[in-house]
């Protein structure tokens, strides 16, 4: 092992111990009611807030690396080194006692995820990856994903509401869903980006279409799919980065079919946010989703900023660095 590989292996071990240490508390809080409303379809449970504080404190104490959390923000993710954390992914699932929910954690170095962990306590399942290495499921390396065909694969589909006025409008999502239903009858909406990407990485799903852009939702899973031999881009086909506005992750073969399908569904109608084909791109305010505030620590050029069009009349004035004190970024953008 090189020195860098040894360092990352040590950080992965520490992060795994931290997530294991809060697993029982995660399970105790399932079914908890919302504590903080952050928009018409967005809220945090008391356990969201508690777990983010606890995990962040433990990571900082044991690794000396600061944490950027979904609920409280944190340091920049486009430069330097930081953890990015979603304490409870699939919050609505969690609040109803649904088992498809977990904790997502990634280590970001100069804008690139180098470690990814997805812990799903209700399933007693742990996914992890180190950049350049294999996907690990419960500590066991998995073989690379084989090529697959769309008509034989299950596909995870992101949050969907036809009336959404967020960054990717509901009507465009409806068109994509319609196109997908004609090519595959095996569409699944799990209500958790972490589940969609982890299941894509281990081959349960052939692919996942993610309309959201938040790094705490996407970074760990994007790395895991890549380490598993899958392909991860945005909906336009550009390589996924921490600043991408969407995620298209899939096994070889399936990814190409999904990308072609999305391009056909787009046609001359809705352009994918941030693309050169987007007529509203230059008019977007340099702030958060729908002009509602920024993702703390992610440059204004990040999705939801200057490179992303305003599709609706989003509202809210969330303060940078926090998603607790006010409405969540992305008025009109539903949260799973």
TrEMBL record:
<dbReference type="Pfam" id="PF00459">
    <property type="entry name" value="Inositol_P"/>
</dbReference>
<dbReference type="GO" id="GO:0007165">
    <property type="term" value="P:signal transduction"/>
</dbReference>
<dbReference type="GO" id="GO:0046854">
    <property type="term" value="P:phosphatidylinositol phosphate biosynthetic process"/>
</dbReference>
<feature type="binding site">
    <location>
        <position position="86"/>
    </location>
    <ligand>
        <name>Mg(2+)</name>
    </ligand>
</feature>
<dbReference type="GO" id="GO:0008934">
    <property type="term" value="F:inositol monophosphate 1-phosphatase activity"/>
</dbReference>
<dbReference type="InterPro" id="IPR020550">
    <property type="entry name" value="Inositol_monophosphatase_CS"/>
</dbReference>
<feature type="binding site">
    <location>
        <position position="70"/>
    </location>
    <ligand>
        <name>Mg(2+)</name>
    </ligand>
</feature>
<feature type="compositionally biased region" description="Low complexity">
    <location>
        <begin position="286"/>
        <end position="308"/>
    </location>
</feature>
<feature type="binding site">
    <location>
        <position position="217"/>
    </location>
    <ligand>
        <name>Mg(2+)</name>
    </ligand>
</feature>
<keyword id="KW-0460">Magnesium</keyword>
<feature type="binding site">
    <location>
        <position position="88"/>
    </location>
    <ligand>
        <name>Mg(2+)</name>
    </ligand>
</feature>
<feature type="region of interest" description="Disordered">
    <location>
        <begin position="270"/>
        <end position="336"/>
    </location>
</feature>
<dbReference type="GO" id="GO:0006020">
    <property type="term" value="P:inositol metabolic process"/>
</dbReference>
<dbReference type="InterPro" id="IPR000760">
    <property type="entry name" value="Inositol_monophosphatase-like"/>
</dbReference>
<dbReference type="GO" id="GO:0046872">
    <property type="term" value="F:metal ion binding"/>
</dbReference>
<protein>
    <recommendedName>
        <fullName>inositol-phosphate phosphatase</fullName>
        <ecNumber>3.1.3.25</ecNumber>
    </recommendedName>
</protein>
<feature type="binding site">
    <location>
        <position position="89"/>
    </location>
    <ligand>
        <name>Mg(2+)</name>
    </ligand>
</feature>
<keyword id="KW-0378">Hydrolase</keyword>
<dbReference type="InterPro" id="IPR020583">
    <property type="entry name" value="Inositol_monoP_metal-BS"/>
</dbReference>
<keyword id="KW-0479">Metal-binding</keyword>
